[in-house]
Amino acid sequence: MVRASKVSQQKSPAEFFAENKTIAGFDTPAKSLYTSVRELVENSLDAAERVGVLPDVSVTLEEISLERFQKLYGVEAAERVDKGLYKDVETERERNAREKKQKQARDRAEKDAKKKAAKTGESVEDILRRQEAGRKAAATKSRRVFYRLTCKDNGSGMPCDDIPNMLGRVLSSTKYNSVMQTRGKFGLGAKMVLIWSQMRVAQPMEVRSSIAGQNFISFHRFNIDLHKNAPVVREHKKLQNPDNWTGTEISVTIEGNFGSYKQKLLKYLKLIAIITPYASFDFRYVAEDEKNSFFHSYTRRTDRMPDPPREAKHHPSDVDLELLKKKIAGSSHKKLSKFLSGEFSNITASLAGRLVTELGGADGARAKGKGNIDISPKQMTDTQLLRLHQFMQQVRFADPDGKDLSPAGEYNLRLGVMKELNPDMVATHEGSAVALEGHAFIVEAAVSIGGKDPAIEQNQLNVFRFANRIPLLFEQGNDVITKTANTMKWSRYKIGLEQGVGVFVSIVSTKIPFKGTSKEYIGDNDKISGAVKKALEQCASQLRTKLAKREEAKQQGEKRKNLELYIPDVSRAVYGVLNSLKDHDSARSRCVRDAHVGILDRVKRGKLLASHFAGELEKYVDKKYQEDGLQYQMQNKKKNRVEDVFLGPLSSERGLTPALSNGVCTIQFLAR
Ligand SMILES: Nc1ncnc2c1ncn2[C@@H]1O[C@H](COP(=O)(O)OP(=O)(O)OP(=O)(O)O)[C@@H](O)[C@H]1O
Predict the structure, then answer these.
(1) Structural domain 316-394, CATH architecture
(2) Pocket lined around ligand 1, Cβ cut-off 6 Å
(3) What ranges do the domains of the chain cover?
(4) Is the ipTM reported for this complex over the cut 0.95?
(5) What is the rounded CA–CA span in Å between residue 275 and residue 6?
(6) Atom of ligand 1 nearest to the CA of 151
(7) pTM of the full structure
(8) What is the number of the ligand 1 atom nearest to the C-alpha of 44?
(9) pLDDT band at residue 663, thresholds of 50, 70 and 90?
(10) Which of 21, 23, 37, 43 to mutate to test the pocket of ligand 1 (most atoms within 8 A of CB)?
(11) CA-based nearest residue to 399, from 347, 444, 443, 354
């Protein structure tokens, strides 16, 4: 018989997430390293944008080998005496088994290498050497490695007293209680970085931060007491701030595996640079072996930051009873109608009046002559509240308009794609706001064709997803954006995949319906899918027009080239005929009209050569194509065709002198 445990147990949120860290994106050491960088970078961007500052974010990742880690933190292993205790010391049996296995693997590899060599012409030795290098690299990847991760920004900074709570207490955030587009959402990310550190490294997090107008930098070192879900501050001091720096620098030591996630991490940074071209990102990797260190800089390409997102009110259709009670408790409205119009979006004063009258009737108050229900919300009984909530679910409210959202904007999206990937062609579109469960969302998209960047693979659709301007890199196949992009009939728009097509979709909303707390993908949803499709179709139609124009220009060019090809032969032939006629008087009288006598004379005197004919023919071809071009433009004018023209930013940075361009031409201003 199994006895039910009599002792009831509770778990703090910190303990829960420590035990279930996978749901927050902290799976393996490699993924945890990636997620840690991501969480800190996204907090930095939120912090800068919140105060309207162009973000400068720098990330440093310093590799710390196991040996150095042990020395650094004084945990060097004592000399081994009882060797049998250690799992990395082989027993006799284990060694024999390993050697046997290795021999079998070697024999197999040799056999395979011989087969491959016969096929490819490569030498067996080369193949084996490469395999050995691969094995060594895999062995390196499986070694335990630690990293000192530091992320510094120029954002809002954090009030000194808030730091331990905001970063050392799970489920604490300044982004709760507001209906607002933010990257952060759960009040979890930075704390998970510390919890991950505590689980493998047990070192505190260090935070330096200063807010505007503060003449010192606050410094904190702290851990989380998982059981109490509370910060444990180990050191707190005020440092001098001679440069009046505002921002935050968070530093933590974690276990990780950069080798396995290097490409993922760099892709993440590239994508975040695409969607935030007004930010500058530095990524410095400091390896144990200096030659493996590197530095990547993603430069700011515009000072035009999207208007920051604004706090919106809750939409009445997305309000549950608990939220209703909370809002009532926190409000000072004396009348229900004022409460409704003051606290919720899409309820005007007149609608609030209608709602209250209707509610009074339905509630029986009006029918019983007890006056209406426009009382203080705080005096409402539980039944009245339940009734109000149900009523709010039945009423048809206008959708939220999305005015408080902050999409990257077509300009930024185009600029980001151009600066990071430099494709041959790109089209962008920003859709209008759509509502989903009381939250507005906007889909913006870019579709690119070609380019040499390895991020765009040829012969396929390369889908890049963003949600609230965060790149989403995992669960690609399950995401609504990928699924929608894959159902598009690209050939209908004359878009072939040969050159590699890039599909960039960014969704912003006051509530992104992520699947899970790790914010990795958005599940299937008809409304989102419909809006994504619409945006992609718009981009695809623009590209079809551009491709048609390019094809037309190409054909013109080819025709011209073909004509030009004949010019030398034709000139030589004409000259040859004239040259043979010049001395035959009978021919002159029979075939040559007066007007041509001069030509023959000039040929005879050597004043007219084949090169002159070639020159004239070239002039003719030139003129013809200028006239055709003019005619083409006139036709377009008649059809009142308007071309999109884009003006690049005035910047002295390399490769970005301002340019006016459309599908036909580019005017480049040279900065002097
Ligand atoms: N670099 C920073 N600058 C200013 N404030 C910060 C910074 N990093 C974190 N914060 C503050 O700490 C809070 C907690 O951050 P945390 O990453 O734990 O959660 P979040 O960003 O609110 O949500 P999510 O778990 O979805 O990322 C944030 O809401 C923010 O107020």
Answers:
(1) Orthogonal Bundle (1.10)
(2) 39, 43-44, 47, 153, 155-156, 158, 166-167, 173-175, 184-191, 248
(3) 19-69+144-298, 88-138, 316-394, 410-547
(4) yes
(5) 54
(6) 1
(7) 0.76
(8) 1
(9) very low
(10) 43
(11) 347
Ligand 1 midpoint to CA 439 (Å): 22
Strand partners, 430: 444
> What separation in Å is there between the alpha carbon of 202 and the centre of ligand 1?
21
Q: Find the 297 Cα to ligand 1 centroid distance in Å.
A: 24
**For the chain, what is the radius of gyration of the CA atoms?**
35
- 19-69+144-298: CATH number: 3.30.565.10
Nearest atom in ligand 1 to 155's CA: 3
Long-range pairs of 70-79 with CB within 8 A, sequence gap ≥ 24: 73/201, 73/203
Query: Which residue of 37, 38, 46 sits with most ligand 1 atoms within 8 Å of its CB, as the best mutation to test the pocket?
Result: 46
pLDDT score for 488: 93
Ligand 1 atom 7, closest CA: 43
Output the six-digit token pair for 238.
């005020």
- Please give the distance of CA 329 from its chain centroid, rounded to a whole number: 40
Residues 6+ apart with CB under 8 A from 601: 582
Architecture of domain 410-547: 2-Layer Sandwich (3.30)
pLDDT band at 317 (very low <50, low <70, confident <90, very high): confident
Give helix then strand counts, H and E, for the chain. 18, 17
Binding site residue list for ATP: 43, 153, 174-175, 184-191, 519
What lies within 8 Å, CB to CB, of 206 at 6+ separation is 219, 220, 221, 250, 251, 252
